[in-house]
Amino acid sequence: MNFILKVLVASLLLSVAIKYGGPFLDLPPSSMLALGVVLFPSTVMAIALWWRTQTYSP
């Protein structure tokens, strides 16, 4: 239960930061930027899981 609460709070903080801090970034709209934003979390998770399998393999 504690872990779920931490994830919910982190998600809320990230959402607020994107909503109110996003307009200050002044990023140009482009397809490469959108592709990077979409693929970045999956890539980070894949690298983290791969690294974990390399670290904890018997």
Structure description:
- This protein is mostly helical and 58 residues long.
- The protein has two helices and no strands.
- The protein has helices at 2-21, 31-55.
- The longest helix has 25 residues, at 31-55.
- The mean pLDDT is 90.
Name the features.
mainly alpha; 58 residues; single chain
Short description:
The protein is mainly α. The protein has helices at residues 2-21, 31-55. The two termini are 31 Å apart.
Q: Identify low-pLDDT runs.
A: none
Q: Class by helix and strand content?
A: mainly alpha
Secondary structure: number of strands? 0
Largest sheet: none
SSE layout:
Layout lengths: L1 H20 L9 H25 L3
Keywords: Membrane, Transmembrane, Transmembrane helix
